[in-house]
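Hi everyone,

Forwarding the result from last night's run.
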Amino acid sequence: MIRDITLGQYYLADSVIHKLDPRVKLAGTMVFIISLFAFRSVSAYVVATLALAAVIHISKVPLKFMMRGLKSIFILLMITVVFNLFLIPGTPVLHFWKLTITEEGIETAAFMAIRLVYLILGSSVMTLTTTPNNLTDGLEKALRPLGKIHVPVHEISMIMSIALRFIPILLDETDKIMKAQMARGADFESGNLIQKAKNMVPLLVPLFISAFRRANDLAMAMEARGYHGGEGRTKMKPLVYASRDKAAYGMMLAYLVVMFAASRIKIFGF
């Protein structure tokens, strides 16, 4: 399960998506996520599926690698589906004991499951095709207007960049600690839920100690190199829009237009 988390990892490949400006990928991810919640119809989700499949294909990131990230949200996905199935009132379809499944519940559960899966895959495309440095620069430049109202844009971007960098590091550290504890006789699989939670203590304590130690070392290294915030700092590689970035913005607009048109079409009564 630990190795299945792909968030924060970068997949090196030579693709057009990798070469896009990070601001374009941030905007594209936001447009895709907003469209999933703004348009609720089968035809619109067909368009979203085709668009996502095309982007994944162009990115040259293996689909199996992206699908690994879905394993970490399987429990959340099941909870979302079950709650929507049984708690949405409407036309009864199946009734047993005190629970009733309705047509509206099935529809809502299906849409929520698709949204959650597509949200993870869409976000993974951005993180897997963008280095943490570029992602930080893109986020900082995109949020620069907020600096006029004294929002610490650089610091926020730096925090997010460090968090993304630490995810693979902490996952690797967790894997090492888990193997070391299992070699000493620790059991993380057997027992009920409470017993499994107790068995996690030998894993969490050294993990927290390691995380705080790494954070302290990073803070000392940043201070030793004279880091004092974003004021007056310059970029070695400033972000500049290319023709492919402008074309990508045009494709985002076209995607929204097609999504809006598709949302007016009904398929199977939806």
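The two ends are 36 Å apart (CA to CA).

Cheers,
N.
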